[in-house]
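for the recovery benchmark. tokens below, seq after
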């Protein structure tokens, strides 16, 4: 019996040595090249490693395909599509020596966690979800004619909480009413829970202009150390700082991708991608954390949708489905559902319903020529030129869903990148404005909020179905109440 046991040990040790030798041999066979000052790997080796078919599309880029999985890279582009969802890479894909190359950081931080999510190290079973409705109190967030972002964030978070609690998860919400919470306090609630918690910050988007064409969903995770943000093409000293959120890089990216697949699959909208940023709530989250952006409050069509109860309920269900997909991965090792699976399941449900929404079909049709009767070529161009968009060529998938080609998606985001940067700068600050220089001045102008009436007053009463926090007080009252209050102080 002892002899058999020792023989089994020798055989097991031999097998382990062979496996380790094979792994070392494979690792040593990676053809790492130093391109543009960074480590790159041939895409052909990724195809061999993941057992995918390599399809070179000339100067347009390269595709890796295997059954239901698909990865698309563009030449000299940071934009990639993985399983039908857009992802922003840390560094562009380069063409060198007759081959396409992808950076080693993108392979480690983006591609491999999505292709093999079950391999994420130290992934603990998730039992608690911390929902963070963005803004609150004096910080109203984005504002349109129907309301403030802070109220939409809170309403959506409450709806997500109901779906998650129904699935048996514990849900903690950072604010349950209209109050301001400092940014550093929000992720600390999740950090106190520790292993088994995830952090989801809920926001709606906005561009600098009120009637912007920017539309769609996007999700943010923390930018990896040593990489630029998705909207930046440069590195700063902050790019190399170690943050608490970096310990969950892989898990956070898989969580964000699972949510984006569910959102796009259950609520047809434009895909703005899974992006990277160094937001304060993401930097401070020691557990897997993401920041989701719903539709654009500055887009008239998006604004009409997001103020309806049915649409917000649908979006809440989609976000909850994405979170549950990550929860199942952490507990059972099962991969989250992909966009194609959601679309196949929801095709019959959405067909002919009010959710069969194809926002991209009308984006290319801009304003008509200003002077249609004139034949000069300049008058045939759409006006104003600053809002000109390229014509969109639509592709219909078997399920009947509308998708844009890569070039049009890249053009949309290139145009809106500058607008988004301006919107972040123009949003209300996290701290209140300083007190007036002459507080005793009784002129009517001194009674107005420092940031101006246009951003502070609610010029229109909320329509039926818009989220209104009962504790929001005068922020949600009709405009005439504000005017009467000011007149009373003046008189």
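predicted aa per position
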């Amino acid at each position: 019996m002892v002899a058999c046991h020792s023989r089994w040990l020798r055989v097991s040790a031999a097998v382990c040595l062979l496996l380790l030798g094979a792994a070392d041999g494979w690792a040593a066979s990676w053809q790492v090249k130093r391109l543009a000052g960074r480590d790159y790997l041939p895409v052909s080796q990724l195809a061999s490693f993941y057992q995918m078919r390599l399809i070179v599309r000339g100067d347009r880029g390269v595709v890796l395909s295997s059954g239901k999985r698909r990865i698309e890279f563009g030449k000299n582009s940071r934009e990639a599509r993985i399983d039908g969802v857009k992802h922003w890479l840390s560094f562009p894909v380069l063409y060198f020596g007759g081959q396409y190359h992808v950076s080693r950081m993108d392979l480690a931080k983006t591609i491999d966690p999505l292709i093999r999510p079950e391999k994420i190290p130290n992934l603990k079973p998730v039992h608690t979800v911390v929902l963070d409705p963005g803004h609150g109190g004096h910080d109203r967030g984005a504002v349109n004619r129907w309301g403030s972002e802070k109220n939409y964030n809170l309403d959506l978070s409450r709806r997500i909480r109901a779906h998650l609690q129904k699935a048996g998860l514990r849900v903690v919400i950072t604010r349950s009413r209209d109050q301001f919470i400092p940014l550093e306090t929000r992720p600390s609630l999740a950090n106190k829970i520790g292993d088994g918690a995830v952090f989801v910050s809920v926001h709606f988007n906005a561009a600098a202009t009120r009637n912007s064409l920017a539309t769609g969903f996007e999700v943010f995770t923390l930018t990896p150390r040593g990489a630029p943000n998705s909207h930046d093409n440069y590195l700063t000293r902050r790019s190399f700082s170690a943050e608490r959120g970096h310990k969950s890089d892989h898990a956070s990216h898989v969580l964000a991708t699972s949510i984006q697949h569910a959102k796009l699959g259950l609520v047809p909208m434009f895909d703005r991608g899974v992006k990277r940023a160094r937001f304060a709530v993401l930097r401070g989250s020691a557990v897997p954390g993401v920041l989701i952006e719903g539709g654009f409050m500055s887009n008239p069509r998006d604004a009409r949708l997001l103020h309806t109860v049915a649409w917000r309920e649908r979006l809440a269900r989609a976000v909850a489905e994405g979170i549950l997909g990550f929860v199942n991965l952490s507990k059972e090792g099962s991969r989250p559902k992909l966009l194609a699976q959601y679309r196949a399941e929801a095709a019959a449900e959405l067909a002919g319903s009010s959710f069969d929404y194809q926002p991209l079909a009308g984006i290319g049709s801009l304003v008509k020529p200003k002077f249609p009767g004139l034949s000069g070529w300049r008058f045939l161009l759409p006006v104003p030129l600053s809002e000109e968009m390229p014509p969109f060529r639509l592709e219909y998938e078997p399920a009947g869903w509308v998708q844009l080609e890569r070039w049009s998606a890249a053009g949309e985001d290139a145009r809106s990148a500058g607008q988004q940067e301006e919107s972040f700068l123009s949003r209300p600050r996290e701290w209140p404005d300083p007190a007036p220089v002459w507080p005793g001045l009784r002129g009517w102008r001194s009674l107005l909020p420092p940031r101006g009436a246009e951003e502070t007053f609610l010029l229109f009463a909320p329509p039926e179905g818009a989220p209104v926090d009962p504790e929001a007080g005068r922020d949600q009252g009709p405009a005439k109440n504000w005017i009467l209050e000011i007149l009373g102080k003046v008189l």
